[in-house]
Amino acid sequence: MVHCPVCRQHNSVLDADASNLDVALMNFLKLYFPKEIKEKRKDSSREQAAEEMELITGHRWSEVPDNACIIM
Hints:
Layout (H helix, E strand, L loop, with lengths): L22 H10 L1 H24 L15
């Protein structure tokens, strides 16, 4: 995605840097939604690892649902 999902400005995502952060909003979210922030960070790390593995192996990684039965 290269366009801002909010304002639709062209190439704004690619050109974004630390100066584009809304620090007040970030602090608000950390203060009032710590569990959600922690879960989002975990999900982001997992997604990044999957993307890196896909780049290395050429195969798409997928999660097996908790209720799936694996037969070997």
